[in-house]
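Progress note, sequence design subtask.
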């Protein structure tokens, strides 16, 4: 089992970027398979801090990095991110970076539509990242997207633009917006096309060859299972499937390519944007978790909502994604708490249940049932072996393992790449 799939097992921001960066030096290739630049990963390597949204986190170690067809690609965001990375000394060339030529594009009017809808929804808004992710995926399944490969055929775009504009102009009119300026759009695409096309290729072929050569692939998920469009807290979700199964459709490889599924799990819970959050703490304890964990969004700088660890949710997401083992992150943030709570079940209409129901109103109505543990004295910050952890912290980790019915493969104890305890090497299966 040479490949590893990293997915977020909560609502995103679990620390996937750090773990992917940590594993990337032992992979031959890192591949994104869904989402877009709504993702935001912070990587800390010594003095250097990298903020990455669209390019696979493996780029920092120089590992071959590939954007699969399941991603929605904003070409201007791609250019800006690559320029920023290059400014930090990271080399990005067609040798170490490729983009699937069948990726749908995020265009400026997708971003506009995302914002118009959110504003119109008022209090009922989803709290999207405003990147145009949802509208771009809608156009993909609506069969009217412009894709990376179309950038090489801009003179033949008329029929596609007719379909696309007919749809969007009607929507825009509803919001009192003018129709799309087709000439301006084509001019913008013409300008950006050479930049994107230097990286474009049918990446499924490259991945097939990587696999044939017996090399290791690391699949990098974005967001988290609770934001999955099918399995998440619908409608407060993103517009892609974030579960591990998407590796197959989002890259052009078979489902057996996923290998070891590593679920990234934060030692407490956070969420950005609207939607149900059973173990949310809207009090001083929640504030403290946020302050200690620096819980501000990488993409939108929004304050993340914080709460205790919810074992019901993680047990569910591990099952939904076939998680082989978890990487537990940010245990250091819990240092110094006198007591720590874990949500072990929910009460719904007076009945005890052990899963998150599908219906939005029921998801909002469940009340957490907690068990309480003693906290630990001393620190876990920077621990790199079990021996460095206070006994009570180990007890907390073991209790989580038990409750979520999934083993811990690693524990992360600071933002720094090397501050990680390896329990079971996912590349060794
Ligand atoms: P991602 O979207 O899943 O990649 O996660 P983000 O990068 O958005 O958010 C995770 C944040 O926690 C980042 O700022 C990381 O640098 C930081 N981080 C990751 N692992 C740890 C850890 O074990 N301890 C602490 N204190 N911070 C961590
Ligand atoms: P990473 O990869 C946390 C959330 C948004 C919003 C919902 C829909 O850093 O873990 P969208 O813009 O995707 O249509 O927004 O999804 N969201 C994330 N939350 N981490 C992310 O990515 C997210 N990407 C999207 O806040 O609630
Ligand atoms: Mg993030």
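Output:
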């Amino acid at each position: 089992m040479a490949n590893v799939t990293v997915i977020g097992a909560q609502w995103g921001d679990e620390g996937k970027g750090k773990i992917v960066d940590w594993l990337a030096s032992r992979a031959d290739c890192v591949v994104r398979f869904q989402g877009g630049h709504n993702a935001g990963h912070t990587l800390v390597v010594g003095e250097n801090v990298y903020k990455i949204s669209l390019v696979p986190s493996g780029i920092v170690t120089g590992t071959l990095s590939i954007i699969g067809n399941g991603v929605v690609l904003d070409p201007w965001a791609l250019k800006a991110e690559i320029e920023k990375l290059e400014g930090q000394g990271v080399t990005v060339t067609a040798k170490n970076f490729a983009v699937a030529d069948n990726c749908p594009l995020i265009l400026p009017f997708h971003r506009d539509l995302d914002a118009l809808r959110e504003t119109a929804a008022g209090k009922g808004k989803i709290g999207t990242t405003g990147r145009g992710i949802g509208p771009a995926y809608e156009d993909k399944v609506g069969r009217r997207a412009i894709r990376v490969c179309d950038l090489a055929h801009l003179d033949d775009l008329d029929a596609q633009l007719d379909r696309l504009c007919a749809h969007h102009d009607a929507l825009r009119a509803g919001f009192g917006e003018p129709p799309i300026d087709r000439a301006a759009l084509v001019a913008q695409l013409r300008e950006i096309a050479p930049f994107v096309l230097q990286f474009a290729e049918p990446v499924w072929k490259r991945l097939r060859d990587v696999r044939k050569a017996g090399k290791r692939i690391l699949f990098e998920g974005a967001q988290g299972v609770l934001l999955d469009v099918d399995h998440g807290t619908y409608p407060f979700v993103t517009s892609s499937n974030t579960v591990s199964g998407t590796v197959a459709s989002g890259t052009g490889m078979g489902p057996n390519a996923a290998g070891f599924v590593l679920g990234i799990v934060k030692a407490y819970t956070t969420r950005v944007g609207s939607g149900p959050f059973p173990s949310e703490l809207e009090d001083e304890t929640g504030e403290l978790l946020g302050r200690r964990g620096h819980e501000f969004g990488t993409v939108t700088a929004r304050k993340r909502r914080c709460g205790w660890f919810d074992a019901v949710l993680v047990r569910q997401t591990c099952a939904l994604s076939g998680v082989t083992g978890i990487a537990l992150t940010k245990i250091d943030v819990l240092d110094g708490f006198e007591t720590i709570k874990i949500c072990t079940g929910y009460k719904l209409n007076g009945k005890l249940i052990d899963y998150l129901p599908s219906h939005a109103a029921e998801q909002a109505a469940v009340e957490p049932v907690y068990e309480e543990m003693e906290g630990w004295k001393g620190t876990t910050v920077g621990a790199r072996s079990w021996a460095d952890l206070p006994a009570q912290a180990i007890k907390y980790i073991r209790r989580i393992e038990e409750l979520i019915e999934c083993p811990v493969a690693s524990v992360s104890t600071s933002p720094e790449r090397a501050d990680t305890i390896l329990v079971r090497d996912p590349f060794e299966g």
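Residues 8, 12-18, 39-42, 44, 294, 298, 329-330, 332-333, 412-415 surround guanosine-5'-diphosphate (ligand 1) (CB under 6 Å). Work on this subtask will continue into the next period as scheduled.
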